[in-house]
Amino acid sequence: MAKPSGTLQGICQTARQDRGRRAFLSGAAAEHIVERLYQARGVHVLESRWRGQSGEIDMILQDGPEVVFCEVKKARDFDTALSRLRMPQIQRIHGAAAEYLATVPDGQLAQVRFDLAIVDATGQAQIHENAFGHF
Q1: Which family does it belong to (predicted)?
Q2: Which of 63, 107, 117, 134 could form a disulfide with 34 if both were Cys (CB 3.0 to 4.6 A apart)?
Q3: Bridge-partner residues for 51, per DSSP?
Q4: Is residue 133 part of a domain?
Q5: How far is 49 from 70, CA to CA, in rounded Å?
Q6: Is the pTM here over 0.70, yes or no?
Q7: Does residue 83 lie in a domain region?
């Protein structure tokens, strides 16, 4: 028998779904802003939200000879966005990047860069090139 939709469990689940949907849409909007910034610089977007077994990479780009792996963080302000990147996530991104590189001709010998793009609540963005180095 189905539970009535007005139960506390149903209300909490709906609120959680709403938060998840807002976070997804907010992240997608931030990624779109960052994508436009890269394109204005002549950087070609190869993949968006690429998923490997190790994790997801928000954007994979080609900047001349370099393959760029970009993590996008959105928050109310730049400092908060910067603080949201943690070492376990960097390690997952490195693992996913290694998986991705296994699919390209130069493989692990490819020139790579890891960028961090941050977006604030007003839609302003900053790209920090080589934010967490090479592996």
Answers
A1: Belongs to the UPF0102 family.
A2: 117
A3: 56
A4: no
A5: 10
A6: yes
A7: yes
